[in-house]
Amino acid sequence: MATGLRSKRRSPLKVIAASCVLASALLFGHPAAAGAAPVFWTDWQTPLTASVAGQLVVGPDTIDVTFAGVYWFAQVGAGTNYWNPSAPYISTTVDNAPPASDIIALNGGGTATINFSRPVLDPLIALVSWNGNTVNFGVPIEILSYGRGYWGNGTPILNQAGTGFYGDGEVHGVIRVPGVYSSLTFTHTSENWHGLTVGAVGLPGPGPEPVPEPASLVLFGSGALALAARRRRR
Question: 3-state class of 113 per DSSP?
Fold first, then answer.
């Protein structure tokens, strides 16, 4: 004799209640899983007299990157890995330090510009040995990480405007420039040498779907619960 198995079905009231609990958790700060994202770092390829060209491969997209300014040397292949140890470059935002030995070394001070062939979202700049430097990007920056690196230890001290920093000791770390940029220009002061490379986590995409304000979501959830209870009584 055939027997039928009834699946467990949740009442509409319970389903809506669970949805409201989830919405509240998202809105009011219940813990959620979060981790650093893999960073795509520039592959520097062509050093010229006053510029260095490279490519930044972000997923399926290839962006041409150009550093324009006075520099001392550029490693575009084999050489010393100044990004070792990797600890100063890892954070809750950055999952991986720059690879291998690609680096651009500056020493004369002045103005430098980084150009992208297409806009990049929240570009990252990794630093090696920015000792005693006064640096200014003219736009807000964020210091994501710093610590003991190849040449020692130091602390980047953010300026009052939040647009640059002073290197107190041998600064090794990563800064982020929030926003969408096709070009970044900064000034820096002279030193024996200090190095950098450029990376990104992603490219600008279409805008997100509109999100209801927290109060609106709570009101919607309360109304849905009341409606479900009313239907159940009927």
Answer: strand
How far is 210 from 218, CA to CA, in rounded Å? 16
88-107 residue pLDDT tens:
999 999 999 999 899 999 99
- What is d(CA 44, CA 39) in angstroms, rounded to the nearest whole number? 15
Banded model confidence at residue 217, pLDDT cuts 50, 70, 90: very low
How many Å apart are CA 205 and CA 194, to the nearest integer? 33
Query: How many distinct helices (H) and strands (E) make up the chain?
Result: 2, 15
Average pLDDT over residues 5-32: 37
- Cα separation of 146 and 165, whole Å? 13
Q: CA 132, 135, 138: angle at the middle one, nearest 5? A: 165
Q: Please indicate whether residue 205 or residue 65 has the higher confidence score (pLDDT).
A: 65
Reading the block at residue 65, the tokens are 């990157």
Return the sign of the alpha-carbon dihedral for residues 143, 144, 149, 155: positive
Q: How wide is the angle at C-alpha 72 spanned by C-alphas 68 and 73, nearest 5°?
A: 90
Identity of the amino acid at 129: S
